[in-house]
Amino acid sequence: MPGDTAREGRHRTGMNASTTASTRTIPTTATRWTLDPGHSAVGFLVRHLMITNVRGEFERFRGEVSYDASRPEATRIEATIDIGSLNTREARRDADLRSALFFDVEHHPEMTFVSRSARAAGDGDLEVTGDLTIRGTTREVTLSVRDISAAPADMRGNPRMGATASARIKRSDFGMTWNKALETGGVVVGDVVTITLDVSLVKMM
User: Fold this and answer.
1) Which domains does the chain have, with CATH numbers?
2) Which candidate, 77, 81, 93, 88, places its Cα nearest to that of 127?
3) N vs C: which end of the chain shows fewer Cβ within 10 Å?
């Protein structure tokens, strides 16, 4: 899926996820915003049994954004997700996803995204390209960012803005290759995963 899935050209293994997020500093030339976890959501969906999508979410995450509406190319994003906090509303499935068959949370507890470039995509939308690290493997992924709001003050007087973003990746690109063939054809779990983010951001003072 050109333009949607992680590209093959930027593949690095053995990288520590938490180190990835801490080695890059958000530029100070644009307004800096911090993610409000209490008013944000990070989710994913994947095809199950070739007939429906299973949805899940990550309940713990943090992030920082640098954004200037007049200079979209200056946009920078850093985010860290606690993979152990995943929840698909089915305990046995969640345990499988945390195991070495999939995320291997014991050895790779975090997923990180560190942006490298950004460009305007029309109607105020953005495409932000960066390094996504899962299970110690880093791939280049492009986030499609839309519904970027203005920045009015909230009820406490803090400037706040919001946005929605999504990306499609192949889980096999990050070492999650487990599957099982169905007697009727196809496989139990799809390879393509859609990541979705609905975020509320508070201006950093």
Assistant:
1) 7-203 (2.40.128.110)
2) 77
3) C
pLDDT (tens digit per residue) in 138-179:
999 999 999 999 877 777 778 899 999 999 999 999 998 876
At which residue do the structure tokens 């109607």 appear? 123
Shortest CA distance to 159 belongs to which of 202, 195, 193? 202
Confidence of residue 9 (pLDDT cuts 50, 70, 90): very low
CA–CA separation, 74 vs 8, rounded Å? 25
- Angle (CA) 157 200 24, round 5°: 105
Provide the strand spans (E) within the chain.
Answer: 7-13, 31-35, 41-48, 52-58, 61-67, 76-82, 86-87, 110-120, 126-134, 137-146, 160-170, 189-203
- Here the contacts of 42-46 (C-beta below 8 Å, separation 24 or greater) are 42/81, 42/195, 42/196, 42/197, 43/195, 43/196, 43/197, 44/193, 44/194, 44/195, 44/196, 45/193, 45/194, 45/196, 46/171, 46/189, 46/190, 46/192, 46/193, 46/194
21-50 tens-digit pLDDT: 333 545 456 899 999 999 999 999 988 766
pTM passes above 0.85 = no
User: How far apart, in Å, are the Cα atoms of 85 and each of 91, 111, 173?
Assistant: 12, 11, 22
